[in-house]
Amino acid sequence: MALNTHIVSRSAPQMGGRLEIAIATDSARRAAAELAARRAVQRVDAWASRLTRFSDTSDLSNLNSRSERTIALRPTLAATLRWAAVAHERSDGIVDATLLDARIAAERGTSIPAVDDRCWTIRPAGRLAILDRAAGVRFDLDGLAKGWLADRAAALLSEWPGVAVDADGDIALRAAEDVEWHVDVADPRSADTSARATLATLRLRGGASWTQSYGVATSGTSVHRWALDHGRPTHHLIDPRTQRPAHTDVVQATVVAPTASEAEVIAKTAVILGSVEALGYFGRSAALAAILLLESGELACLPGIETWLA
Amino acid sequence: MTDLGQPRHITAGRPLPPRKAPPIGPGANDLPLQSVVSAAPTPVPTGEATQLPVMAAERGRLSRPDPRPMRFAFGAAAVAAVSFLAVGFGQPDFGSSAEQPTDTEALAANAAADSTGTAGQQTVTRDQRITRYVFLAPGEKAPPGATVISPEDTRVQPGRETSQSAAPAAEPITPAAQPEPAAPPRVTTRQSGG
After folding, report:
1. Torsion angle of the four alpha carbons A81, A84, A85, A90, in this order, in degrees rounded to the nearest 10
2. Which end of chain A is more exposed for a tag (fewer CB within 10 A), N or C?
3. Which of the 8 DSSP states describes residue A106?
4. Best to test chain B binding among A171, A177, A272 (most B CBs inside 10 Å)
5. Alpha-carbon distance A276 to A254, whole Å?
6. What is the DSSP string of B26-47?
7. Which H or E run includes B186?
8. Which of B181, B186, B191 sits opposite A219 (nearest CB)?
9. Strands annotated E in chain A
């Protein structure tokens, strides 16, 4: 199907970033696509409002403010935490949702409160779920939730031939037959953000006779980076092994995976592990393609990256 | 001494009608022993004598439904199907681009005859619509309700015989200029704050 690719987009601030939904359609269905995008944004708003730590009334903030070790969770938070448990396992423990205190300490430059045990489990209980956690465990779902929300929003728009849900850089894409998306990988070294300098452009195509789903996520330490009072730079990606911001040779990692959730986990893991361990980790993961920007300015890519470049 | 079993009939000397045969069935044997049939036994009709067997036979036939109505229905359906196929094969090809022969002279003659009233002694009333073709001279206007055929239309030429001719040469089809393929939709991935 040849589309005139009218891009219908809706954007809204969410979870400290911005959500953008783009639907590729023909001119005849443009109004319907705009309505579908608007509704998807509203649904994501509702979900995000329960998962953000930037709101005192969210389910996550309520969970973090309570001291009970066993607590019932509502469906949205329960589903996100279930994915967090899977992500922890698939990343060999690198992606850890219990590092809220360490992250806040890194943002403020304060010392990290001692937490002996960060173990937690979640078990179903009808529509709800029961969380069992060690004392003092608090959760940070910002990165995990973005990829997860992007995938769910894309699933809401599954009837459209081309969909891209960009949750603050974590993108869930759907491409039907004859649909092709171009994904620009932003160059973080460009001082002029309006020029949108790119490291590479990925080409994501639909299946021969089916709709193909992709996830593209970029994680790095060069954009969300700040200097503490005494000049020590810091950023938001916490290494669970040290509970401090990770310092490796990877400045930015862009990963293509079957879903945005997986791409986000793999990209974050690659940044925290460093280039050598990351290239080995990619082989055990669901990564389809990966581009690493190293501190030296070089690009390291997975074999076969040529098939993914536009 | 009167014979008690013998019925007494008062007649005018005429012979008595033959006594009816006793009924066959329950109680048939209950007739008095002295019943006498005065005349020769009345031949029993076949149906009566064999009433029970006939009824049994009829019951046997009724137990099986009569196939004739369904045979008639199937036959009628077959005839209808054959007729439908015959009409379908035999109808003219309306999709053909070839010109249909039109006997314009006959139509013109009829039109003239109708107008002059000299159609001949044998007037045939037709209940079909007659199309008149009138050639308009330059400047003339078509009568009301008429369909004007442009001079360029060579399908019908009044006053000329038309015969099935080859379809007019097809005009070369110029493919419409194809729009340039639209650029693929584009999005950008960048570092997030999560």
Report:
1. 160
2. N
3. H
4. A171
5. 16
6. TTGGGS-TT----SSPPPPPHH
7. strand B186-189
8. B191
9. 6-14, 17-25, 70-73, 120-125, 128-133, 162-167, 170-175, 180-186, 198-205, 212-220, 225-227, 233-235, 238-239, 244-245, 250-257, 289-294, 299-301
A-B contacts (CB, under 8 Å): 97
Distances (CA, A) of A70 to A56, A62, A116, A131, A161: 21, 14, 18, 5, 44
CB B191 within 8 A of CB A223: yes
Q: What is the pLDDT along chain A (310 residues), one digit of tens a residue?
A: 445 555 666 666 666 678 889 898 888 888 898 899 989 988 998 999 999 888 899 999 999 999 999 999 999 999 999 999 999 999 999 999 998 888 888 877 777 766 667 899 999 988 889 999 998 899 999 789 999 999 999 999 999 989 999 998 899 999 988 889 999 999 988 765 555 688 999 999 988 778 899 999 999 987 666 666 566 667 678 888 888 888 899 999 999 999 999 999 999 999 999 999 999 999 999 999 999 999 999 999 999 999 999 8
Neighbouring residues of B15: CB distance < 8 A, sequence distance ≥ 6: B38
- Which uninterrupted H or E stretch holds B52? helix B51-62
Best B178, B180, B186, B189 residue to mutate vs chain A (most A CBs within 10 Å)? B189
Q: Per the CB < 8 Å rule, is B192 touching A218?
A: yes
Between chains, do A180 and B184 touch, taking CB under 8 Å as contact? yes
Higher-pLDDT residue of A6 and B110 is A6
> Which residue's structure tokens are 């894309």?
A154
Q: Which residues contact A298 (CB under 8 A, 6 or more apart)?
A: none
Interacting residues of B17 by C-beta distance below 8 A, sequence separation 6+: B39
With an 8 Å Cβ cutoff, are B189 and A162 in contact? no
Is B191–A173 a contact, with Cβ atoms under 8 angstroms apart?
Answer: no
Closest residue in B to A237 (Cα–Cα): B194
Nearest-by-Cβ selection for B193 from A16, A162, A185: A16
The owner of tokens 């070089």 is A298
